[in-house]
Amino acid sequence: MVMEEQGGVRNGSNGIIFEVPLWIELQNTSNAVRVIRDLNILLFRDGKELSQMMQITNQDNVWYGNEGAYSFVLQPRSLNKYDLHFLIKKNEMGDNCQFDEIRLRYFDEKDKKHTFTLDKIDRCWELGNLNREGFWTLAMK
User: Given a cut of 70, is residue 15 above it in pLDDT?
Assistant: First the structure.
């Protein structure tokens, strides 16, 4: 998966927002159908989950995910690329809004949770871009 460069912290019309645009390749090398359900980004502080980001489905007539869904059915021996977009507003996180880690989470067809660290963050609400040039992470084994 690749985190695109334009993600980061911005001043929005309703306050400060944190955006993570992401493109992801989902590969199924087995002969069975696989399911990736409720793929989302979580924000953590000192190993404790603080919040889930909002999954953006459509923005300016561009669809994200699987035609707006963040659950995927992977056909046997397939490889598919998806553009995803996640967002959270600082004021929606309440008093406990300082995070230091970004994790990707999904559930498989057996409802087993899988979580992977995407990045560690030093200054979470500092305005600017996430520097992710050439960033690639293997998240599924």
Answer: yes
